[in-house]
C-alpha cells in the first residue's frame, strides 16, 4: 500500500552538522506554507497521476521540525490528507518532533489528532556533545519529551541518537545508550555522524578546530551500539534502525522495499509510476505554485537498467536483504542473472551472505555498507 511523506522545512535554529533541507529564522513562511501544502495535497494528481483517493497506510511528517507547527496547522494538513486520500484504519501516522517544542500539552494534542508514532530528535544525552552539535535542547528536556509523548498515550516512540562525534569517546556512547534504554522506546535510529560539506562542522573539522574520532574508534562505537541494542531486545533491522518486535517503521520500510510512495512539500522525494521525483527547494516559489502548477524540480525515470540497481542497494540496507523471489517477480529475471559478477566477490570477501530469501549484509558488511551498495550501480 502507498505512503505519503510531508516535508516541514522549518527549524528554530540550524544544527551545526545538518545539511538537511531545513531553515531557521523563517517562521513567517510557516502559515502560508501550511496552506500551500493543503493545496498541493488537494492537487496530488498533478505530480502523482492517479494518486487522488489512493489508500494510504502510512503518513510521515518529516523535517526540519514538524513540531514547530501549531496543533491547528497539523490538523489542517491532516484534514486535507484524510479528505483527498483514503487513510486506512490503523495507518501508521508518524510525526518528527524536537524536545524543545514537544510539551506535554502538544503531545496530547497530537495524540488527539490521530498521530500514533513520534520520532524524537535526541542525538545525545551529554550536555557537552549537545552544545557541540548546536542542539538547542538539554538532556533533561530530551527525556522529558519522550515521557510527555508516552504519557499522552503515544506508545510507538522512536528516538534518534548519534555517534562518531567530535570529542566523543566510547564511554560517552555507553552512557548515551544507558540513558536511551531507560526510556519507553519501541524504536531507535542510531547514526554515525556524516561530515557534510558546507556545514559549520565541515569547516571546523577541515580547519582543525574540531577533531573527529578515528575511523577504528567509530567502528568500535558502532559495534557497541549493535551489541547494546540487541541485548536490550531491539531487532537491528536496517543499517541504522532498531525496533522492538513488531515496531519496525512501516513508512521507512517502503523506501527500502521498492514500494511506491507520494510526497508533498519542498525538496520532498517520491517514487511513483516508476519515476523518482524531487520537489523544488525554494519555499516562496513552492507557496506561489502549489495547486497551480507542477512542483517537481527533478524527475528520473527508473528504466530497466536502473530499477534492479535501486532495488538491490535499497534492499541491502535492511538486514533481511534482497528477496530473490520478489526481485524475480518485479523484474522478470533472477538477481544472479543481473548481478552474478557483483554478488560472488562480495560473498567471497565476507561482506554479503546467501540467505534463505536471497542475499544480505554480513556483520562485517555492515561496516562497509556504502562500498557494498556502490557495487550495484553499473
Ligand atoms: S533540528 Fe534536525 S533538521 Fe533541524 S537543523 Fe537540527 S538536525 Fe537539521
From TrEMBL:
The reply on keyword Chaperone is yes
Listed A to Z, the keywords are: 4Fe-4S, Chaperone, Cytoplasm, Heme, Iron, Iron-sulfur, Metal-binding, S-adenosyl-L-methionine
Which Pfam families does the annotation name? HemN_C (PF06969), Radical_SAM (PF04055)
What family, per the record? Answer: Belongs to the anaerobic coproporphyrinogen-III oxidase family. HemW subfamily.
For this protein, the record's PANTHER family field holds: COPROPORPHYRINIGEN III OXIDASE, RADICAL S-ADENOSYL METHIONINE DOMAIN-CONTAINING PROTEIN 1, MITOCHONDRIAL
According to its UniProt entry, what is the function of this protein? Answer: Probably acts as a heme chaperone, transferring heme to an unknown acceptor. Binds one molecule of heme per monomer, possibly covalently. Binds 1 [4Fe-4S] cluster. The cluster is coordinated with 3 cysteines and an exchangeable S-adenosyl-L-methionine.
Could you tell me what this protein is called?
Heme chaperone HemW
| Natural source organism | Megasphaera hominis
Amino acid at each position: 500500500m502507498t505512503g505519503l511523506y510531508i516535508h516541514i522545512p522549518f527549524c528554530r535554529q540550524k544544527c551545526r552538522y545538518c545539511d538537511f533541507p531545513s531553515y531557521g529564522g523563517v517562521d513567517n513562511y510557516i502559515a502560508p506554507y501550511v496552506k500551500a501544502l493543503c493545496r498541493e495535497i488537494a492537487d496530488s494528481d498533478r505530480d502523482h497521476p492517479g494518486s487522488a483517493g489512493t489508500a494510504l497506510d502510512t503518513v510521515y511528517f518529516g523535517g526540519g521540525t514538524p513540531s514547530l507547527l501549531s496543533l491547528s496547522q497539523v490538523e489542517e494538513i491532516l484534514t486535507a490528507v484524510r479528505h483527498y486520500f483514503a487513510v486506512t484504519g490503523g495507518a501508521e501516522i508518524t510525526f518528527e518532533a524536537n524536545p524543545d517544542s514537544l510539551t506535554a500539552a502538544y503531545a496530547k494534542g497530537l495524540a488527539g489528532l490521530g498521530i500514533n508514532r513520534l520520532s524524537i530528535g535526541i542525538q545525545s544525552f551529554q550536555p557537552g556533545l549537545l552544545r557541540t552539535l548546536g542542539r538547542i535542547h538539554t538532556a533533561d528536556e530530551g527525556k522529558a519529551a519522550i515521557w510527555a509523548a508516552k504519557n499522552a498515550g503515544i506508545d510507538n516512540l522512536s528516538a534518534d541518537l548519534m555517534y562518531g562525534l567530535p570529542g566523543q569517546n566510547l564511554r560517552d556512547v555507553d552512557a548515551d545508550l544507558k540513558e536511551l534504554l531507560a526510556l519507553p522506546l519501541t524504536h531507535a535510529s542510531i547514526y554515525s555522524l556524516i561530515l557534510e560539506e558546507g556545514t559549520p562542522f565541515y569547516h571546523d573539522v577541515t580547519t582543525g578546530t574540531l577533531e573527529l574520532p578515528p575511523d577504528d574508534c567509530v567502528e568500535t562505537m558502532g559495534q557497541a551500539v549493535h551489541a547494546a541494542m540487541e541485548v536490550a531486545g531491539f531487532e537491528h533491522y536496517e543499517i541504522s534502525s532498531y525496533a522492538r518486535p513488531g515496531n519496525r517503521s512501516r513508512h521507512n520500510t517502503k523506501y527500502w522495499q521498492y514500494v511506491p510512495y507520494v510526497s508533498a512539500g519542498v525538496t520532498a522525494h517520491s517514487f511513483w509510476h516508476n519515476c523518482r521525483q524531487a520537489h523544488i527547494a525554494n519555499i516562496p516559489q513552492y507557496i506561489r505554485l502549489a495547486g497551480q502548477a507542477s512542483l517537481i524540480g527533478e524527475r528520473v525515470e527508473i528504466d530497466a537498467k536502473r530499477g534492479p540497481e535501486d532495488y538491490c542497494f535499497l534492499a541491502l540496507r535492511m538486514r533481511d536483504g534482497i528477496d530473490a523471489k520478489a526481485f524475480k517477480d518485479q523484474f522478470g529475471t533472477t538477481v544472479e542473472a543481473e548481478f552474478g559478477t557483483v554478488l560472488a566477490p562480495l560473498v567471497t570477501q565476507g561482506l554479503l551472505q546467501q540467505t534463505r530469501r536471497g542475499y544480505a549484509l554480513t556483520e562485517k558488511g555492515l561496516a562497509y555498507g556504502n562500498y557494498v551498495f556502490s557495487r550495484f550501480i553499473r
